[in-house]
Write a structure and sequence with these properties.
Blueprint lengths: L12 H10 L29 H13 L3 E7 L5 E8 L3 E8 L2 E8 L2 E5 H10 L14 E5 L15 E2 L6 E2 L2 E10 L2 E8 L6 E8 L2 E8 L13 E3 H9 L2
Parallel strand pairs: 6-13
Antiparallel strand pairs: 1-2, 1-12, 2-3, 3-4, 4-5, 5-6, 7-9, 8-9, 9-10, 10-11, 11-12
Length: 242
């Protein structure tokens, strides 16, 4: 029987949070250069790996253990722009803006902080409209998804090599990895030499395309999670009465 399960790499915690709210898109990634961040712990270059899954593990480890910055376009929120800051000690911050709305997400220790307007927009895109009252406009909704903050950028281990998509990013040769399911795809460009950092990701979703570049590896980021917060259950009660 054919496995049609959508790979975890194509899902993001914001979608999980929206599902929790409705109680019944993808949000991803300036860049270039492998920088001087902490290494992945492997002496092998990306180009020398025979198994894609082994390379994916090293890429995820390298990204998880260093600070970085990402920016580019996004397929979320009807198309738009997105900027990401990540630090292994301070957490992650993501700022998104698109035709459907805008907002920010923070993550620290696996706990997500999602601006109420952004969460409402995500829920609306899934088919249910909610209205955020003015008193909650500056609130960040918190929830635990059971995933680390690297869920916003890590590559799923089901990715495969795509040699025909090997390219260069800001002059650096890359090894391409890809995941594709039912017209939805992500292509990851990993530095071929040195620490196997993720340098660029190209995505296709629902007819929209996006490109995010990653860089400034090892340059520390200042990330302060919001203080005005509300648990998911309480937010649901106040905006949906349940």
């Amino acid at each position: 029987m054919r496995n049609t399960r959508r790979p975890a790499a194509l899902l993001r915690p914001l979608i999980v949070t929206a599902a929790l709210l409705t109680a019944a898109t993808a949000v991803t990634g300036c860049g270039g250069g492998s920088g001087d961040g902490s290494g992945s712990g492997s002496d092998k270059n990306a180009a020398s790996y025979e198994k894609a899954g082994d390379l994916v593990k090293e890429v995820n480890k390298a990204m998880r253990e260093t600070a970085f910055h990402g920016s580019g376009t996004s397929t979320a929120l009807g198309g738009g722009t997105q900027e990401t800051w990540s630090d292994p000690e301070q957490g992650l911050r993501m700022k998104s803006s698109g035709k459907a709305g805008s907002g920010e997400i923070y993550c620290k220790g696996g706990k997500n902080f999602i601006s109420a307007p952004l969460l409402a927009t995500s829920v609306e895109q899934s088919g249910q409209k909610i209205t955020v009252p003015d008193r909650l406009a500056d609130v960040y909704v918190t929830n635990e998804t059971g995933q680390g903050c690297d869920a916003y950028y890590r590559i799923d281990e089901s990715a495969t090599f795509a040699k025909d998509k090997n390219a260069e990013v800001d002059g650096e040769k890359t090894v391409a990895l890809t995941i594709s399911v039912s017209g939805t795809s992500d292509t990851y460009h990993v530095a071929a030499e040195g620490t196997p950092y993720l340098l660029r990701m190209d995505s296709v979703r629902d007819g929209l395309t996006s490109t995010t570049t990653y860089g400034k590896f090892g340059q520390r980021n200042t990330i302060t999670v919001p203080s005005e917060t509300m648990p998911m259950d309480e937010f649901r009660k106040q905006v949906m009465g349940g």
